[in-house]
Design goal:
328 residues, alpha/beta, Rossmann fold, 2 domains, eight-stranded mixed β-sheet, 8 strands, 51% helix
Length: 328
């Protein structure tokens, strides 16, 4: 009888401790996936980076084209003219972007959006390509990445509003601007999310979505197992609740899929069929559901964000066709 009474007293304490430990684990998971400084302390950043590199396709043609592209980019950068820009979000975070001018008179602009845990410099080979074709370039570091401030990586959702600030900047410089948004991975998902915004300027003429995910919640359902060796259910929902409380947004809201259903912006969807980071099926689903004028390019033998190196002629040829059609 005494043992039963003691158990009744102890059990609520044990359950409370277990609950607090579970909540603590969910909070750690949020930081380990969305706060770069915390990721580095846990060595999660290096582990995720290593896993991502190992998942790439390592063939000689891709490696040679990658090296060639960066050699050309470094040479281009020596003579490129531009400036570093800053903007402030409503929350008071400083955002940083690199602008590169074209020397010829032009109303053509491109906004280049990098991927998860990335930085603006990763998009410089694309900046070179556009700049050589008469485009002014704007390449931002998105929230909480690179030189930009923030508490949590936005997975495209908070970034969709942040990047409106850069569109405003472009229109301040050139009210007649014709703008292309070209994103890769998380940046591609963000570009698509922007197309679902009612106040997207009509100056945005086209979008290039390179290996986007359908929505952040579905992507993390897979990655929580791969990266952290934890079951997606129920901890992802708990972590998502913690993110809403701490970061102010819901992973389920971060949906490129819902945005493209409302989009009227001509969009080129690109994906590698060997992508182990984001399934090629996600781009197929996005393409299928998109309400806008659209094209789909699946590059055989390309891993995540490798399409431009696996088939540069096919990749840039498809982009050029989009631009020729929708940008004057």
């Amino acid at each position: 009888m005494k043992k039963k009474k003691r158990l009744k007293r102890i059990l609520p304490v044990v359950l409370a401790v277990l609950f607090l430990l579970y909540i603590g684990l969910a909070n750690i998971l949020v930081s380990a996936a969305l706060v770069p400084s915390f990721m580095e302390r846990l060595e999660a950043f290096s582990r995720i980076t290593e896993d991502s590199v190992n998942a790439l396709v390592h063939t000689s043609d891709i490696q040679q084209q990658y090296q060639k592209s960066w050699e050309e980019t470094r040479e281009w950068a020596k003579n490129a003219h531009g400036q570093k820009l800053t903007k402030e979000t409503e929350e008071g975070y400083k955002l940083v972007a690199q602008e590169v001018y074209t020397e010829e008179e032009s109303h053509k602009w491109v906004l280049l959006l990098h991927g998860y845990t990335g930085w603006k410099e990763a998009m410089y080979p694309f900046a070179m390509w556009y700049n050589q074709r008469g485009y002014h370039v704007l390449a931002p570091d998105m929230r909480c990445q690179g030189e930009s401030e923030g508490d949590f990586i936005g997975m495209g959702w908070t970034d969709r509003r942040d990047n409106m600030l850069w569109l405003d900047y472009i229109l301040e410089q050139d009210p007649e601007a014709e703008i292309v948004i070209h994103g890769q991975s998380m940046g591609a998902a963000c570009a698509l999310m922007m197309t679902g915004e009612e106040d997207l300027p009509e100056n945005v003429k086209a979008v290039v979505s390179d290996c986007a995910y359908t929505d952040a919640y579905t992507m993390f359902q897979e990655k929580i197992v791969q990266w952290f060796h934890l079951p997606a259910f129920p901890i992802l929902d708990t972590a998502n609740l913690m993110l809403q409380l701490r970061g102010g947004y819901d992973l389920k809201d971060a949906s490129a899929l819902e945005a493209v259903k409302k989009s009227s912006i001509p969009t080129l969807f690109i994906h590698g069929d060997q992508d182990q980071m984001i399934s090629v099926e996600m781009s197929r689903e996005l393409y299928q559901e998109a309400a806008c004028p659209k094209e789909l390019l699946i590059v055989e033998g390309a891993g995540h964000a490798q399409c431009q190196d696996k088939d540069p002629e096919g990749y840039y040829g498809a982009v050029e066709k989009l631009l020729d059609t929708y940008v004057s």
